[in-house]
């Protein structure tokens, strides 16, 4: 463990492709393979923060700790503060500096893969956690006309849209969902459903039929992606978002321009395996 200077933490996190992708970038700069993963329970987070301050140069945070980790950061970058989400921490002189790179990753992926420009558009986000709030902020900053957030717990969706003036709905409110699905140019799936193989899909087949374009932030194959493809819907998974959010994190930690192609090749190889 001594030569590990970077980690991705979360629960679950064993599936994460971040180690493969980040180690390809570090390797490009002859810095070995200093990036690994650690699965943590909520109770283990305070001790981990102390460990990180003394031993790490940086770490990524995935579900479900992107908000919880903020308690341990001495400084939070303004974008992360506004998104209420930290997915990247840089350790400087024993202090944790929190950033978010999820929104940047999503926007780059929307542009490069779906050729979608959010300015003037309507987007429906499923979920209201760390990724969703970071994505929402980026879309709004980029000129989105209407933001709709559907979440299992309505209160969290309302909290997310409050600063942006969007619409919050409950995922189980079928009538409101139908209207939102009709309205949206793109549906961005930001719940953690799909990370586990036995997870149900957040949208039924009838709901999916109303979707024009689907962006599932989960980068593994999911039931939702398979169902959407069967219906001929333009669907993108989260691998390009993962690539760009990881590239930005690498730049924050090291100050080097991220070797995107090297990272992409490592990611594509790992996804195929
Ligand atoms: P959080 O833990 O912060 O949020 C989880 C969200 O999922 C909440 O909205 C939660 O709803 C919802 N949720 C959890 N379980 C269920 C369920 N059984 N039914 C309905 N909704 C549920 O996670 P993150 O925001 O960090 O991550 C969310 C997703 O985004 C993950 O799948 C992750 O893989 C993906 N992601 C992908 C990235 C990429 O680069 N491709 C980058 C970042 C994230 P509630 O509020 O009601 O609990």
Structure commentary:
This protein is of the alpha/beta class and about 270 residues long. The protein has eleven helices and twelve strands. The strands form two sheets. The protein has a six-stranded mixed β-sheet. It has a six-stranded parallel β-sheet with strand order 9-8-7-10-11-12, with helices on both faces. The model has no long low-confidence stretch (mean pLDDT about 95). The structure holds NADPH dihydro-nicotinamide-adenine-dinucleotide phosphate. NADPH dihydro-nicotinamide-adenine-dinucleotide phosphate binds next to helix 4, helix 5 and helix 10.
Write the layout of secondary structure elements.
Blueprint: E1 6-10, H1 18-28, E2 35-39, H2 45-55, E3 58-61, E4 75-76, H3 78-83, E5 88-92, E6 95-99, H4 102-114, E7 122-126, H5 130-141, E8 146-151, H6 154-161, E9 167-170, H7 174-183, E10 186-189, H8 205-208, E11 213-216, H9 223-230, E12 234-236, H10 239-254, H11 260-272
Parallel strand pairs: 1-2, 1-3, 4-6, 7-8, 7-10, 8-9, 10-11, 11-12
Antiparallel strand pairs: 3-5, 5-6
Helix pairs in contact: 1-10, 1-11, 4-5, 4-10, 10-11
Considering the chains and any ligands shown, give keywords for the structure:
single chain; 273 residues; alpha/beta; 6-stranded parallel beta sheet; 11 helices; 12 strands; binds NADPH dihydro-nicotinamide-adenine-dinucleotide phosphate
Task: Please provide the ordered H/E string of secondary-structure elements.
Answer: EHEHEEHEEHEHEHEHEHEHEHH
Strand order of the largest sheet: 2-1-3-5-6-4
Strand residue percentage: 15-25%
Fraction of residues in H or I helices: 40-55%
Shape: globular
Radius of gyration: 18 Å
Give the quaternary arrangement of the chains: single chain
**Total count of strands:** 12
Number of helices: 11
Q: Round the mean pLDDT to the nearest integer and report it.
A: 95
Write out the distinct hetero groups bound to the structure.
NADPH dihydro-nicotinamide-adenine-dinucleotide phosphate
Largest sheet: 6 strands, mixed
Going by helix content, strand content and strand pairing, the class is alpha/beta
Distance between the termini: 25 Å
Low-confidence stretches: none
